[in-house]
Design brief:
This is F-type H+-transporting ATPase subunit beta. The structure is a single chain. This protein is an alpha/beta fold and 354 residues long. The protein contains 17 helices and eleven strands. The strands form three sheets. A seven-stranded mixed sheet has the order 7-6-8-9-5-10-11, sandwiched between helices.
Protein backbone atom coordinates (compact mmCIF):
# COMPACT_ATOMS: atom_id res chain seq x y z
CA UNK A 1 0.00 0.00 0.00
CA UNK A 2 1.34 3.43 -0.87
CA UNK A 3 2.12 5.79 1.96
CA UNK A 4 0.00 8.95 1.87
CA UNK A 5 1.71 12.31 2.38
CA UNK A 6 -0.36 15.15 3.78
CA UNK A 7 0.49 18.75 4.50
CA UNK A 8 0.15 19.65 8.18
CA UNK A 9 -2.17 22.54 7.34
CA UNK A 10 -3.19 23.42 10.94
CA UNK A 11 0.49 23.75 11.92
CA UNK A 12 1.30 25.77 8.80
CA UNK A 13 -1.57 28.21 9.26
CA UNK A 14 -0.83 28.57 12.96
CA UNK A 15 2.84 29.36 12.36
CA UNK A 16 2.21 31.55 9.30
CA UNK A 17 -1.03 33.53 9.94
CA UNK A 18 -0.93 35.45 6.62
CA UNK A 19 0.05 32.42 4.60
CA UNK A 20 -0.95 33.64 1.14
CA UNK A 21 0.90 36.96 1.31
CA UNK A 22 3.90 35.37 3.04
CA UNK A 23 4.08 32.71 0.34
CA UNK A 24 3.97 35.32 -2.42
CA UNK A 25 6.82 37.25 -0.80
CA UNK A 26 8.80 34.01 -0.74
CA UNK A 27 8.30 33.64 -4.48
CA UNK A 28 5.58 30.98 -4.33
CA UNK A 29 2.36 31.09 -6.33
CA UNK A 30 -0.67 31.68 -4.10
CA UNK A 31 -2.73 29.21 -6.13
CA UNK A 32 -0.13 26.48 -5.66
CA UNK A 33 -0.06 26.96 -1.90
CA UNK A 34 -3.86 27.00 -1.73
CA UNK A 35 -4.13 23.80 -3.78
CA UNK A 36 -1.58 22.07 -1.57
CA UNK A 37 -3.54 23.08 1.54
CA UNK A 38 -6.85 21.83 0.17
CA UNK A 39 -5.38 18.64 -1.28
CA UNK A 40 -6.03 19.54 -4.92
CA UNK A 41 -2.32 19.10 -5.48
CA UNK A 42 -1.05 15.94 -3.72
CA UNK A 43 2.01 16.58 -1.57
CA UNK A 44 3.81 13.80 -3.42
CA UNK A 45 3.55 15.81 -6.67
CA UNK A 46 4.73 19.12 -5.20
CA UNK A 47 8.17 20.46 -6.09
CA UNK A 48 10.72 19.94 -3.36
CA UNK A 49 11.68 23.63 -3.41
CA UNK A 50 8.04 24.55 -2.71
CA UNK A 51 7.89 22.30 0.35
CA UNK A 52 11.27 23.56 1.58
CA UNK A 53 10.11 27.16 1.17
CA UNK A 54 6.93 26.45 3.17
CA UNK A 55 8.92 24.76 5.93
CA UNK A 56 11.27 27.76 6.03
CA UNK A 57 8.32 30.16 6.28
CA UNK A 58 6.87 28.16 9.16
CA UNK A 59 10.23 27.75 10.88
CA UNK A 60 9.76 23.99 11.09
CA UNK A 61 11.33 20.88 9.60
CA UNK A 62 9.99 18.97 6.60
CA UNK A 63 9.17 16.09 8.95
CA UNK A 64 6.92 18.43 10.94
CA UNK A 65 5.35 19.95 7.83
CA UNK A 66 4.53 16.65 6.13
CA UNK A 67 2.32 14.03 7.78
CA UNK A 68 2.92 10.48 6.70
CA UNK A 69 0.19 7.90 7.11
CA UNK A 70 -2.22 5.54 5.41
CA UNK A 71 -4.54 7.04 2.87
CA UNK A 72 -7.67 5.85 4.62
CA UNK A 73 -8.04 5.48 8.37
CA UNK A 74 -10.75 4.25 10.65
CA UNK A 75 -12.05 6.20 13.63
CA UNK A 76 -12.11 4.00 16.68
CA UNK A 77 -15.48 4.43 18.42
CA UNK A 78 -15.05 1.92 21.24
CA UNK A 79 -18.29 0.25 20.04
CA UNK A 80 -17.50 -3.41 19.40
CA UNK A 81 -19.89 -4.19 16.55
CA UNK A 82 -19.04 -1.03 14.62
CA UNK A 83 -15.27 -1.16 14.96
CA UNK A 84 -15.18 -4.85 14.10
CA UNK A 85 -17.63 -5.05 11.20
CA UNK A 86 -18.24 -1.60 9.70
CA UNK A 87 -15.63 0.94 10.84
CA UNK A 88 -16.14 4.67 10.49
CA UNK A 89 -13.87 6.14 7.81
CA UNK A 90 -12.10 9.29 8.96
CA UNK A 91 -13.29 12.11 6.70
CA UNK A 92 -15.98 9.92 5.15
CA UNK A 93 -19.76 9.67 5.36
CA UNK A 94 -21.66 7.15 7.49
CA UNK A 95 -25.20 6.32 6.44
CA UNK A 96 -27.75 5.17 9.06
CA UNK A 97 -30.41 3.09 7.27
CA UNK A 98 -33.31 2.39 9.62
CA UNK A 99 -37.04 2.14 10.04
CA UNK A 100 -38.84 3.95 12.88
CA UNK A 101 -37.88 3.07 16.47
CA UNK A 102 -34.72 1.18 15.58
CA UNK A 103 -32.41 3.33 17.69
CA UNK A 104 -30.61 5.31 15.01
CA UNK A 105 -30.77 8.58 16.96
CA UNK A 106 -29.60 6.84 20.14
CA UNK A 107 -26.61 5.56 18.18
CA UNK A 108 -25.93 9.03 16.75
CA UNK A 109 -26.14 10.54 20.25
CA UNK A 110 -23.73 7.88 21.52
CA UNK A 111 -21.35 8.55 18.65
CA UNK A 112 -21.42 12.28 19.45
CA UNK A 113 -20.73 11.54 23.11
CA UNK A 114 -17.77 9.30 22.33
CA UNK A 115 -16.24 11.66 19.79
CA UNK A 116 -16.52 14.53 22.27
CA UNK A 117 -14.47 12.44 24.68
CA UNK A 118 -11.89 11.86 21.94
CA UNK A 119 -11.44 15.58 21.36
CA UNK A 120 -13.52 15.92 18.21
CA UNK A 121 -15.70 18.94 17.57
CA UNK A 122 -19.28 17.70 17.21
CA UNK A 123 -21.88 19.63 15.21
CA UNK A 124 -25.52 18.72 14.70
CA UNK A 125 -27.24 20.34 11.74
CA UNK A 126 -30.71 20.43 13.25
CA UNK A 127 -33.48 19.90 10.69
CA UNK A 128 -36.02 21.58 12.95
CA UNK A 129 -38.22 18.54 13.49
CA UNK A 130 -39.66 17.14 16.70
CA UNK A 131 -38.59 13.56 15.92
CA UNK A 132 -38.58 11.34 18.99
CA UNK A 133 -35.03 11.02 20.30
CA UNK A 134 -33.65 14.12 18.61
CA UNK A 135 -33.27 15.74 22.04
CA UNK A 136 -30.63 13.15 22.94
CA UNK A 137 -28.60 14.06 19.85
CA UNK A 138 -28.91 17.75 20.64
CA UNK A 139 -27.78 17.19 24.22
CA UNK A 140 -24.63 15.32 23.15
CA UNK A 141 -23.63 17.71 20.34
CA UNK A 142 -21.09 20.44 20.98
CA UNK A 143 -22.93 22.75 18.59
CA UNK A 144 -26.56 22.61 17.43
CA UNK A 145 -27.07 24.78 14.34
CA UNK A 146 -30.00 25.37 12.02
CA UNK A 147 -28.71 26.75 8.73
CA UNK A 148 -26.04 25.87 6.20
CA UNK A 149 -24.38 29.24 6.76
CA UNK A 150 -24.14 28.63 10.51
CA UNK A 151 -22.71 25.16 9.94
CA UNK A 152 -20.19 26.48 7.41
CA UNK A 153 -18.99 29.27 9.69
CA UNK A 154 -18.66 26.95 12.67
CA UNK A 155 -16.70 24.39 10.68
CA UNK A 156 -14.33 27.07 9.36
CA UNK A 157 -13.77 28.32 12.91
CA UNK A 158 -13.08 24.86 14.33
CA UNK A 159 -11.48 22.91 11.53
CA UNK A 160 -7.93 24.25 11.89
CA UNK A 161 -7.46 22.54 15.25
CA UNK A 162 -9.91 19.64 15.42
CA UNK A 163 -11.42 16.85 13.39
CA UNK A 164 -15.17 17.36 13.09
CA UNK A 165 -18.10 14.98 13.35
CA UNK A 166 -21.13 16.46 11.60
CA UNK A 167 -24.54 14.94 12.26
CA UNK A 168 -27.01 15.75 9.50
CA UNK A 169 -30.44 14.62 8.35
CA UNK A 170 -31.03 13.13 4.90
CA UNK A 171 -33.30 16.09 4.11
CA UNK A 172 -30.14 18.15 3.57
CA UNK A 173 -29.15 15.69 0.82
CA UNK A 174 -32.56 15.93 -0.86
CA UNK A 175 -32.53 19.74 -0.76
CA UNK A 176 -28.99 19.93 -2.15
CA UNK A 177 -27.77 21.91 0.86
CA UNK A 178 -25.28 19.27 1.97
CA UNK A 179 -23.70 19.25 -1.50
CA UNK A 180 -23.52 23.06 -1.40
CA UNK A 181 -21.83 22.88 2.00
CA UNK A 182 -19.17 20.47 0.71
CA UNK A 183 -18.57 22.68 -2.31
CA UNK A 184 -18.13 25.79 -0.17
CA UNK A 185 -15.73 23.99 2.14
CA UNK A 186 -13.34 22.89 -0.61
CA UNK A 187 -11.27 26.03 -0.21
CA UNK A 188 -11.40 25.89 3.59
CA UNK A 189 -9.27 22.77 3.84
CA UNK A 190 -7.75 21.57 7.08
CA UNK A 191 -8.55 18.59 9.25
CA UNK A 192 -11.21 16.10 8.07
CA UNK A 193 -14.97 16.33 8.47
CA UNK A 194 -16.72 13.02 9.10
CA UNK A 195 -20.45 13.11 8.37
CA UNK A 196 -23.08 10.96 10.08
CA UNK A 197 -26.13 10.91 7.82
CA UNK A 198 -29.44 9.85 9.37
CA UNK A 199 -32.94 9.51 7.92
CA UNK A 200 -35.26 10.98 10.55
CA UNK A 201 -38.32 10.48 8.37
CA UNK A 202 -37.31 6.81 7.94
CA UNK A 203 -38.40 6.91 4.31
CA UNK A 204 -35.30 5.47 2.67
CA UNK A 205 -35.17 1.95 4.15
CA UNK A 206 -36.62 0.42 0.97
CA UNK A 207 -34.82 2.67 -1.49
CA UNK A 208 -31.48 2.20 -3.19
CA UNK A 209 -28.89 3.38 -0.69
CA UNK A 210 -26.87 5.23 -3.32
CA UNK A 211 -29.96 7.10 -4.55
CA UNK A 212 -31.25 7.85 -1.05
CA UNK A 213 -28.00 8.96 0.56
CA UNK A 214 -25.45 9.54 -2.18
CA UNK A 215 -21.94 8.08 -1.87
CA UNK A 216 -21.26 6.44 1.50
CA UNK A 217 -18.01 5.25 3.03
CA UNK A 218 -19.71 3.33 5.83
CA UNK A 219 -23.19 1.77 5.82
CA UNK A 220 -24.99 0.83 9.01
CA UNK A 221 -28.25 -0.97 8.24
CA UNK A 222 -30.40 -1.54 11.31
CA UNK A 223 -31.91 -4.99 11.81
CA UNK A 224 -35.43 -5.60 13.12
CA UNK A 225 -34.65 -9.14 14.30
CA UNK A 226 -31.88 -7.89 16.60
CA UNK A 227 -34.20 -5.21 17.95
CA UNK A 228 -36.94 -7.75 18.67
CA UNK A 229 -34.46 -9.59 20.86
CA UNK A 230 -33.12 -6.48 22.59
CA UNK A 231 -29.66 -6.61 20.98
CA UNK A 232 -28.13 -3.15 20.55
CA UNK A 233 -26.53 -1.60 18.59
CA UNK A 234 -28.88 -3.32 16.18
CA UNK A 235 -26.82 -3.08 13.00
CA UNK A 236 -27.01 -5.97 10.58
CA UNK A 237 -23.62 -7.73 10.85
CA UNK A 238 -23.75 -9.04 7.28
CA UNK A 239 -25.04 -6.09 5.27
CA UNK A 240 -23.40 -3.28 7.28
CA UNK A 241 -20.00 -2.56 5.79
CA UNK A 242 -17.27 -0.01 5.17
CA UNK A 243 -15.05 0.90 2.23
CA UNK A 244 -12.08 0.75 4.60
CA UNK A 245 -12.26 -3.03 4.38
CA UNK A 246 -11.30 -2.75 0.71
CA UNK A 247 -7.86 -1.98 -0.67
CA UNK A 248 -5.88 -3.40 2.28
CA UNK A 249 -6.61 -0.40 4.49
CA UNK A 250 -7.38 -2.57 7.50
CA UNK A 251 -4.69 -4.20 9.54
CA UNK A 252 -4.33 -7.83 8.42
CA UNK A 253 -5.28 -9.18 11.85
CA UNK A 254 -8.41 -7.01 11.94
CA UNK A 255 -9.44 -8.07 8.45
CA UNK A 256 -8.94 -11.76 9.25
CA UNK A 257 -11.07 -11.59 12.42
CA UNK A 258 -13.72 -9.54 10.61
CA UNK A 259 -14.00 -12.05 7.77
CA UNK A 260 -14.20 -14.99 10.15
CA UNK A 261 -16.88 -13.17 12.17
CA UNK A 262 -19.04 -12.44 9.12
CA UNK A 263 -18.75 -16.03 7.94
CA UNK A 264 -19.77 -17.37 11.35
CA UNK A 265 -22.66 -14.93 11.81
CA UNK A 266 -23.95 -15.62 8.30
CA UNK A 267 -24.04 -19.36 9.00
CA UNK A 268 -25.56 -18.76 12.45
CA UNK A 269 -28.38 -16.76 10.92
CA UNK A 270 -29.08 -19.48 8.38
CA UNK A 271 -29.25 -22.08 11.16
CA UNK A 272 -31.21 -19.91 13.58
CA UNK A 273 -34.42 -19.92 11.56
CA UNK A 274 -34.33 -23.72 11.54
CA UNK A 275 -33.52 -23.99 15.25
CA UNK A 276 -36.30 -21.57 16.19
CA UNK A 277 -38.88 -23.82 14.50
CA UNK A 278 -37.55 -27.33 15.03
CA UNK A 279 -35.01 -27.08 17.83
CA UNK A 280 -31.27 -27.64 18.02
CA UNK A 281 -31.64 -31.36 17.41
CA UNK A 282 -32.72 -30.81 13.81
CA UNK A 283 -29.44 -29.36 12.59
CA UNK A 284 -26.34 -31.37 11.65
CA UNK A 285 -24.12 -32.31 14.58
CA UNK A 286 -21.19 -30.51 12.92
CA UNK A 287 -23.25 -27.29 12.83
CA UNK A 288 -24.06 -27.25 16.56
CA UNK A 289 -20.69 -25.78 17.66
CA UNK A 290 -20.96 -23.14 14.92
CA UNK A 291 -24.47 -22.25 16.01
CA UNK A 292 -23.43 -21.91 19.64
CA UNK A 293 -20.40 -19.78 18.77
CA UNK A 294 -22.53 -17.54 16.56
CA UNK A 295 -24.95 -17.13 19.45
CA UNK A 296 -22.07 -16.17 21.77
CA UNK A 297 -20.60 -13.71 19.29
CA UNK A 298 -23.95 -12.04 18.68
CA UNK A 299 -24.47 -11.70 22.45
CA UNK A 300 -20.95 -10.35 22.94
CA UNK A 301 -21.43 -7.64 20.30
CA UNK A 302 -24.37 -6.19 22.28
CA UNK A 303 -23.00 -3.27 24.29
CA UNK A 304 -24.20 -0.80 26.94
CA UNK A 305 -24.12 2.85 25.84
CA UNK A 306 -23.14 5.82 27.97
CA UNK A 307 -26.17 7.84 26.85
CA UNK A 308 -28.49 4.98 27.85
CA UNK A 309 -27.23 4.60 31.41
CA UNK A 310 -30.28 6.33 32.99
CA UNK A 311 -32.59 3.82 31.25
CA UNK A 312 -30.61 0.58 31.31
CA UNK A 313 -28.93 1.15 34.70
CA UNK A 314 -25.80 -0.33 33.14
CA UNK A 315 -22.55 1.60 32.83
CA UNK A 316 -21.47 2.41 29.31
CA UNK A 317 -18.54 0.40 27.99
CA UNK A 318 -15.61 1.48 25.81
CA UNK A 319 -13.42 -1.22 24.28
CA UNK A 320 -10.32 -0.54 22.28
CA UNK A 321 -10.10 -2.21 18.89
CA UNK A 322 -7.33 -4.44 20.23
CA UNK A 323 -9.57 -5.61 23.09
CA UNK A 324 -12.48 -6.29 20.75
CA UNK A 325 -10.40 -8.27 18.28
CA UNK A 326 -8.79 -10.27 21.08
CA UNK A 327 -12.16 -11.15 22.62
CA UNK A 328 -13.79 -12.03 19.29
CA UNK A 329 -10.88 -14.26 18.34
CA UNK A 330 -11.30 -16.14 21.62
CA UNK A 331 -14.96 -16.76 20.78
CA UNK A 332 -14.15 -17.81 17.22
CA UNK A 333 -11.40 -20.16 18.38
CA UNK A 334 -13.71 -21.93 20.81
CA UNK A 335 -12.07 -20.70 24.02
CA UNK A 336 -15.48 -19.62 25.34
CA UNK A 337 -17.37 -22.78 24.35
CA UNK A 338 -18.09 -23.60 28.00
CA UNK A 339 -19.76 -20.20 28.60
CA UNK A 340 -23.46 -19.58 28.04
CA UNK A 341 -24.26 -16.75 25.63
CA UNK A 342 -26.34 -15.02 28.32
CA UNK A 343 -23.14 -14.49 30.32
CA UNK A 344 -21.63 -12.50 27.44
CA UNK A 345 -24.69 -10.38 26.69
CA UNK A 346 -24.60 -6.60 27.14
CA UNK A 347 -21.19 -6.45 28.78
CA UNK A 348 -17.73 -5.14 28.03
CA UNK A 349 -14.61 -7.28 27.87
CA UNK A 350 -14.52 -11.02 28.33
CA UNK A 351 -13.11 -12.19 31.62
CA UNK A 352 -9.43 -12.97 31.49
CA UNK A 353 -8.73 -16.62 32.16
CA UNK A 354 -5.55 -18.01 33.61
Amino acid sequence: MDVELQLNVPLLRRLVPNLTSAAQKAGLRAATVSNLCTGKIPVGRAEVRTLVALATLAGCSLDELIIRGSGMRMIETGIKALDLLAPVVRGGTVGFVARPNMGQLVLLAELMHRMNKRGYATIFWDPGTDTSGINHVQAQSGFVLSTREEVYNQIVNLREEKDILLGVDRSAVLSGELFSLWESLKEAGARPITAALVDMACEAADESVSEAYGPLDTLWRFDSDLISRGIYPAIDPIISTSTITEGNYLDAAHLAVQQRSRKLLRRYRELRSLVQVHGLGKIAESDVPLYKRGERLEAYLAQPFFVSEPYTEKSGEWLSLYETLDDVKRILDGEMDDVESAELFFKGRLEVRS
